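INFO batch 0412 | record 1 of 1 | parsing
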Amino acid sequence: MGGDNIGSYFKTNLKYIRNQKGISQKQLADKIGVDQSTISYWEKGMDVTVDNAVKVAEALNIPVPEFLGVDLRVQEDIKKTIFNKDGVEITIAHNGELNDKMLLEINNLLLNEKILKEELKETDARNAEK
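INFO prediction complete | emitting tokens
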């Protein structure tokens, strides 16, 4: 199968991520400087150079080792939950099971981050007055 020399998941991830991000073959091709037919060939398993594989991963904003070495379709079962409280945001990757203890820890992290931000603002304000 083409592309195996740089990562066995290239063709799978290329089509999957491109579709997930709502990017057409033409848009991706224009972004990395190749013809649309080249993207189509790669998605069918034709050979791709390492340089072009890196360009694709970067254009899709996916870390290169992950893009080339992991079937990203399998990652769908990992949930990413974003907690945002008073302008403090954290993202948690998990398997869908967030128990009360985890939620309490997350709340404490957000509270501590908020306190640190407020302390930094106060320090900056004092320093600006000097």
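INFO post-check: The radius of gyration is 21 Å.
INFO record closed
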